[in-house]
């Protein structure tokens, strides 16, 4: 199991018309939804959450670590999101 360098991660789930999952640390927020490409927000560089860093090479390790943590949390809590192919495709 890969452990992230941060000490606390909050996990959130949206269950409105567009389902989404999020892993949030004191600096980063990874949001994965069924209707669009995932977002990685660097809260230190972009506190207004306007820039998506998900595809930037310099953030690849952050995306990877948060994705692992999010998938582990979903597995641990037996979350039904693991059965949604539109969400799971971003966790692999």
Structural summary, described in words:
- Helices cover 23% and strands 22% of the residues.
- The chain is an alpha+beta fold and 92 residues long.
- It has a 4-stranded antiparallel β-sheet with strand order 1-2-3-4, with helices on one face.
- A hairpin with a 5-residue loop joins strand 1 and strand 2.
- The protein is globular.
- The two termini are 15 Å apart.
Which oligomeric form is depicted? single chain
> What's the β-strand tally?
4
Distance between the termini: 15 Å
Shape: globular
Share of residues in strands: 15-25%
Rg to the nearest angstrom?
Answer: 12 Å
Average pLDDT, all residues? 84
Structural class per helix/strand content? alpha+beta
Low-confidence stretches: none
Number of helices: 2
Helical proportion?
A: 10-25%
Biggest sheet architecture: 4 strands, antiparallel
**Strands across the major sheet, in which order?**
1-2-3-4
What is the element string, with H for helices and E for strands? EEEEHH
């Amino acid at each position: 199991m890969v452990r992230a360098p941060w000490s606390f991660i909050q996990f959130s789930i949206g269950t409105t018309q567009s389902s989404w999952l999020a892993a949030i640390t004191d600096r980063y927020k990874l949001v994965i939804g069924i209707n669009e490409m995932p977002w990685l927000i660097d809260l230190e560089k972009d506190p207004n959450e306007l820039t998506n860093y998900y595809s930037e090479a310099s953030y690849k390790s952050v995306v990877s670590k948060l994705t692992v943590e999010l998938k582990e949390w979903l597995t641990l809590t037996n979350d039904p999101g693991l059965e949604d192919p539109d969400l799971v495709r971003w966790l692999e």
